[in-house]
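We treat protein structure as text, and this decision shapes the records that our systems exchange. Such a record has a labelled line for the sequence and another for the backbone structure tokens. The record that follows is passed on verbatim for readers who wish to inspect the format:
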Amino acid sequence: MRNCYLRKVQLIPTDFELYILIGNAVIAENFMIDTFGLPPGWQEFNLEGAVAHTWSIWSEKLEQRVFAIHAPDFSPQDIAHEAVHVTWELARNTNFKYDKDNQEQQAYYVDWILSSALEMKGKKELIVKNNVINK
């Protein structure tokens, strides 16, 4: 994919935000470096052959923890997989507890993240240009 789509979603009821980046890895990496104040080369995008990634990042620039996922395309399987990682990172940074008797909150988050990502497809206003959303 030549473009990179971006959507920022609030992980309610927390103050955490999730940046969903779908598409070109170079554009996604440059966006993350500029937006979060990360040093160039902070993270390789294709570690050990993985095609999609999740990050829980402390941004000195934003003075807050942010979550981000990147997938090379709109594959629901990849996005759902990364959404599960986000839910566990969110639990690690909050008092949320997921277990066999308490699954519903995690399921809602996975649904919300997957739906938010898939709704971006084809929306030109959500394409990243010059490290900002094209408006």
Remarks:
- The radius of gyration is 14 Å.
- Residues 33 and 39 are 6 Å apart (CA to CA).
- The chain has one domain: 4-133.
